[in-house]
Amino acid sequence: MVKMPNCCQQQYLSAVSLIGNSRFIQASVSPILSLALCLGTSYANAQESPNAKPLPRSSQSPISPSPLVRSPALGNQISLNGRTLPGNWLQRSGTANQITTYLSDGTFRQFIGVNFLNSSNWTRQPIQWFSSLIKPLVLSTTLLEGYRYLDITNFAQTAGWQIATNGNTLMITTPKVQITNIGQSQQPSDASVSPLQQARILVDLNRPTPWQVAQGSTIKTTQIPSPDPDTLIPKSTIPPNREWTVTLDAIADPVLIERYTPQPPPAAPTSLPDLLKQLSPATPPLPAPEPLIQKVEVANNQTIIHLSVPFGLSPQVSTVADPNRLIIDIRPDPLEERDITWAPGLRWRQRYINLGIERFGVVWLEINPRTGLTLKPMSASPNTLMGTAPLIQTAQRYSAVAAINGGYFNRNNRLPLGAIRRDSQWLSGPILNRGAIAWNDSGEFYFGRLTLEETLIIGNNQHLPILFLNSGYIQSGIARYTPAWGATYTPLTDNEIILVVQKDQITNQLPGGKVGEQVVPIPQDGYLLTLRASATTNASLLPVGTAVTISSTPTPADFNRYPYIIGAGPLLIQNRQIVLNAKGEKFSNAFIAEKAVRSGICTTSTGTLMIAAVQNRVGGYGPTLAEHAQLMQQMGCVDALNLDGGSSTSLYLGGQLLDRFPSTAARVHNGIGIFLKK
Questions:
Q1: Coil, strand or helix: which one is 330?
Q2: Distances, alpha carbon 486 to alpha carbons 250, 469, 481, 483, 508, in Å
Q3: What is the percent of the chain with per-residue pLDDT over 90, rounded to a whole number?
Q4: N or C end of the chain: which has fewer CB within 10 A?
Q5: What whole-number distance in Å separates Cα of residue 218 and Cα of residue 207?
Q6: Residue 89's pLDDT band (boundaries 50, 70, 90)?
Q7: What is the 3-state secondary structure (H, E, C) of 598-620?
Q8: What is the sign of the dihedral through the CA atoms of 229, 234, 235 and 238?
Q9: pLDDT of residue 134
């Protein structure tokens, strides 16, 4: 039996019982401070030397089950105070019915509001939650099938949580909490920012409680009607405010709800007399400034604080222990710096990077492919190239530990627009000589602009070019569709001629008809050739029974040495030099000039790989392609490629998106997954 510190003995599990098929843990209620005294260790210790004193049994890092531990229980949803949420959890039971509960770190952050502090030891994660930053709590971790789990047993016990399992669901009940005050103040004075950018909201509680923050949609402004019907009110050139919500598992005092109940809009002013109007023409009224706190409401035993946040600003939420308080700062630079070794060879980093007078928030993962991590392309649909899905969903289906969105696609028909190669098989061919990255399982990478030259060779040694392979990029010419496309093919243009090829012989020739009307099976022992527009004249050269072969060669030829390829573009950096040529890769002028959040992938001089999400500049929009190249160069990239960006930009780690809220991320066609070798 493991000895526990005296301060923890009375606070350990007060009762453990088995109720039917459910495990139930009754956790005693005590202040969170006692947990800090019991488990707290200095932040320096979180950087962990080999001689550091271990935490109690339930906080030791269970890298693999001990001989006394029976089969673990797993699930992928939690019930938090009766609300069902997605969240992975794990329980292990040892001797004397002792149960250790683990929660995936993404669930812990998103639904409980726990802040992760920097750490260079992946087996220990220092956290802050209504507790000290000087002596943070340190939770042990374990890795399992794409997730990192934190041992929350002692944390939950000291916080007064009740925990039970019911099949796939971990049920968490937290103590009832009251919100005693919601007030607004100013942050410390700074002459370089406006008073609005220094706004601070203080939420006082009678004890710690889970909280969540979420980004909503833009808010339509209410303009004061003009007193003169002949005066046009000019449209605002300022981007609209955005709604944010901060939700707490607590009940606000009715006085607070009344204090922040929206007032009815002002009535239209009476018209001015005609004479007065002539002497003093009416000027359009200025729109009334939106109050920061729009509304406070209680629903489902939660208090929801609705905020109206101006463009270029975002809330940064933190907690303090004395008094128990939630602090919501409205800032132009809300990104918190992080440097966390998350798994062996996998490091999560985020900070602001300066580019001239601009500052860009960047979130990235550093991957060492020589430490048991591998990369593979992922597609949204398991049995076809048609389809899109949130990256978070695709990564979980593949059991990836980390991921980033990949190449381009057509949002209307959800088909790929670039190279995808997996296990040395082309799933989709490249287009327009655009940039691509190739790699192998040995951690070697290759960057360049990629073309695939395919040729159809007819029996009499006549050669016909095949322009596209399994591609949603539609042009006049011959295209090829293999079983990697899916079980069937439906014409993408009118009046195609479709050739069925089996075992290197044309076995059928079909008229395609109208777009989307005919479904043609793709043979497992062959492929389809589609002749579009002017290429239909080649049908006479390809009657049924014709023997054909395919010649397929990538350019540069070095790409052929790698089993995995993702194409996107433009290529940003080669050999540490910026080689951006978006025009040469056939990107439009609007795309080149656009300021948007962006995704990128690159290698460094130390042989590591970085996948990065570059966010908006402080107070403005994201980088242009040229700025993106400069930022990647400044981050130490030797070779770098721009991936699909904008709303597609998604950086995934262990069940969570690091760079944005899942509700704001678009569905994507493909991505690059990072996997732990079994």
A1: strand
A2: 50, 13, 9, 5, 19
A3: 76
A4: C
A5: 33
A6: very high
A7: EEEEEEECCCCEEEEEEEEECCC
A8: negative
A9: 86
Question: How far is Cα of residue 323 from the mean position of the Cα atoms in its chain?
Answer: 33
Please write the tens of the pLDDT for every residue from 190-218. Answer: 545 554 557 999 999 999 999 999 999 99
Q: How many CB atoms lie under 10 A from the CB of residue 7?
A: 12
Number of H helices, E strands in the chain: 10, 50
Phi and psi at residue 33, in whole multiples of 5°? Answer: -60, -35
Give me 267's structure tokens.
């009535």
For residue 49, pLDDT over 80 is answered with no
H or E stretch including 672? strand 670-676
Q: Which residue, among 282, 288, 285, has the nearest Cα to 230 in the 3D structure? A: 282
Residues 240 and 221 sit within 8 Å (Cβ to Cβ): yes
Residue 140 has pLDDT above 90, yes or no: yes
Q: Considering only CA atoms, which of 508, 511, 518 is closest in space to residue 542?
A: 508
Supply the DSSP symbol for 512.
Answer: -
Instruction: Indicate the SS3 state at residue 258.
Output: helix
- List, in order, residues 6 or more apart from 606 with CB less than 8 Å away: none
Pick from 515, 417, 403, 518: which is nearest to 468 by CA?
417
548, 549, 550, 551 alpha-carbon torsion, rounded to 10°: -130
- pLDDT higher than 60, residue 60: no
pLDDT at 637: 98
The 3-state secondary structure of 539-597, one letter per residue: HHHCCCCCEEEEEEEEECHHHHHCCEEEECCCEEEECCEECCCCCCCCCCHHHHHCCCC
| Closest to 62 (Cα-Cα) out of 14, 88, 94, 108 | 94
DSSP 8-state code for residue 109: I
Q: Which are the contacts of 322, defined by CB distance < 8 A and separation ≥ 6?
A: none
Amino acid symbol at 210 = P
Whether 29 shows a pLDDT value over 80: the answer reads no
pLDDT band with cut points at 50, 70 and 90 for residue 35: very low
Q: Is 5 left (phi over 0), alpha (psi -120 to 50) or beta?
A: beta
Least confident of 12-16, 154-158, 176-180, 556-560: 12-16
Q: Which of 129-138, 186-195, 212-221 has the lowest mean pLDDT?
A: 186-195
Q: What is the pLDDT of residues 237-292, one digit of tens each?
A: 688 999 999 999 999 999 999 999 887 766 655 555 555 555 555 555 555 678 99
What is the residue-averaged pLDDT of the chain? 86
State the pLDDT at residue 390.
Answer: 98
Residues paired with residue 339 on neighbouring β-strands, in sequence order? 349
Q: Which of 525, 554, 598, 612 is nearest to 419 (CA)?
A: 554
The residue among 90, 94, 71, 69 whose CA lies nearest residue 143 is 90
Check if the beta carbon of residue 155 is closer than 8 Å to that of residue 138: no
Give, as one character, the DSSP assignment of residue 119: B
Contact 189, 59 (CB under 8 A): no
Write down the residue that tokens 């609705």 correspond to.
Answer: 306
User: Cα–Cα distance between 594 and 572 in angstroms, integer?
Assistant: 16
The C-alpha angle 663, 341, 246, rounded to 5 degrees, equals: 30
Q: Write the DSSP string, 643-654.
A: E--GGG--EEET
pLDDT computed for residue 72 by the predictor: 78
